[in-house]
């Protein structure tokens, strides 16, 4: 079980350390961890946010455990040298097109949701975010118009095969859950979205047991806070999925709680190759203070055991330990409490 660990920047190393403690406590036979540089840390050391040796390490592993990248001091660099290119590059180079971002209410945490407790209690949804296309990966640039004004531009597009493969992932996920799929787009304005919708409808023919509905992204953002319990699986493009998942985290209680799996088609001897990371970033405002909530990172390790190593039992054990810690009132600053990163890790380990 070869796991490449890329902790990255800011709180990335802090939360990843706790995820590793949890993994090591399971004493899984044959588990090998090796670490690589990504993000601003890699740029400082190697002059590039995703050095060739890091990419090679990822390719030779069975799974990647990722922390976070991003450093405000690097925001002025040429785009291809910015820390974020590490995670974007890994997603693209490793064909990780399907990003699963589950968001479910945690018992005892309803009072921490940004929503009323009775609304928050019903949340149990999965965002299936396309991860290799959209305006993220289109041509982009800045230019000066004839009249001298500067213009920035980014090309949004989806090819039908890109939509088809993520749609299949989402329909299959819905089959394994409550059988409801909401496809989120902006087809009333964007051609990219109209094609998205047309292809999702075509794919629906293969899944008569799944109830499909379509929602414009503005309405979806509204429904997500009005009545999040109405959603089962949500499938959407790269940009809308990025935004809606951060929003979903606050419906549950904190961005420090939401994990993600980025999957492609490659199979290893153990399961599906994948990259696992919290949905949050490097949180420069609290980095280096030992205050970050490591639960999202710990839950990402659980997703890794489930999807890349077929270890459902251990994955569920980790998730239960986190849920129990929350139910027992273990709360970081993001949840109105005083527990630090290490203390939260200790609390999860005790319950494991
Ligand atoms: P962010 O997610 O890093 O932080 C947003 C807010 O949430 C901050 O106030 C932060 O303190 C808080 N927060 C985030 N995670 C937390 C945790 N585990 N515990 C407690 N509080 C937490 O988003 P941002 O501030 O917009 O971005 C900061 C940097 O991270 C940027 O450079 C951005 O590009 C990068 N980023 C990277 C990833 C990634 O590596 N996958 C994801 C998102 C953002
Ligand atoms: C995320 C992040 C990334 C994204 C950034 C860091 C490129 O926000 O993983 O949600 O936009 O996908
Ligand atoms: Mn994001």
- Backbone structural class: alpha/beta
Oligomer: single chain
Please report the distance between the alpha carbons of the first and last residues: 21 Å
Low-confidence spans:
none
* Small-molecule binders: nicotinamide-adenine-dinucleotide, 3-isopropylmalic acid, manganese (II) ion
Q: Globular, elongated, flat, extended or rod-shaped: what is the shape? A: globular
Helix content: 40-55%
Average per-residue pLDDT, rounded, comes to: 98
Radius of gyration: 20 Å
How many H/I helical runs?
12
How much beta, percentage-wise? 15-25%
Count of β-strands: 12
* Order of the strands making up the biggest sheet: 2-1-3-12-11-4-5-10-8-9
Please outline the major beta sheet.
Answer: 10 strands, mixed
In N-to-C order, the SSE pattern is EHEHHEHEHEEEHEHEHEHEEHHH
């Amino acid at each position: 079980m070869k796991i490449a660990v890329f902790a990255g920047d800011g709180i990335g190393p802090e939360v990843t350390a706790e995820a590793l403690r949890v993994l090591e406590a399971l004493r899984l036979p044959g588990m090998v961890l090796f670490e690589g540089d990504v993000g601003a840390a890699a740029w400082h050391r190697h002059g590039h946010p995703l050095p060739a040796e890091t990419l090679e390490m990822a390719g030779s592993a069975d799974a990647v455990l990722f922390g976070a990248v991003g450093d405000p001091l690097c925001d002025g660099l040429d785009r291809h040298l910015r820390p974020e290119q590490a995670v974007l590059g890994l997603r693209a180079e490793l064909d990780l097109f399907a990003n699963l971002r589950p968001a479910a209410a945690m018992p005892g945490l309803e009072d921490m949701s940004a929503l009323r407790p009775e609304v928050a209690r019903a949340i149990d949804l999965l965002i299936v975010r396309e991860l290799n296309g959209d305006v993220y990966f289109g041509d982009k640039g800045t230019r000066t118009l004839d009249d001298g004004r500067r213009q920035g531009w980014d090309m949004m597009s989806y090819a039908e095969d890109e939509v088809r493969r993520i749609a299949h992932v989402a329909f299959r996920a819905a089959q394994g859950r409550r059988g409801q799929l909401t496809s989120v787009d902006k087809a009333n304005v964007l051609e990219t979205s109209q094609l998205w919708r047309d292809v999702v409808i075509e794919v629906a023919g293969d899944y008569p047991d799944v109830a499909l509905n379509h929602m414009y992204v503005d309405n979806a953002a509204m429904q997500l806070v009005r009545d999040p319990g109405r959603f089962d699986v949500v499938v959407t493009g790269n940009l809308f999925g990025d935004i809606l998942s951060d929003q979903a985290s606050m419906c549950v209680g904190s961005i420090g709680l939401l994990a993600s799996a980025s999957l492609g088609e490659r199979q290893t001897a153990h399961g599906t190759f994948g990259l696992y990371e919290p949905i949050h970033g490097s949180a420069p405002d609290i980095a280096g203070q030992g205050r970050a909530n490591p639960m999202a990172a710990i839950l990402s390790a659980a997703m890794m055991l489930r999807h890349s190593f077929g270890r459902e039992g251990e994955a569920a054990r980790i998730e239960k330990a986190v849920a129990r810690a929350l139910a027992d009132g273990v709360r970081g600053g993001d949840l109105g409490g005083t527990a630090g990163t290490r203390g939260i890790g200790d609390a999860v380990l005790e319950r494991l």
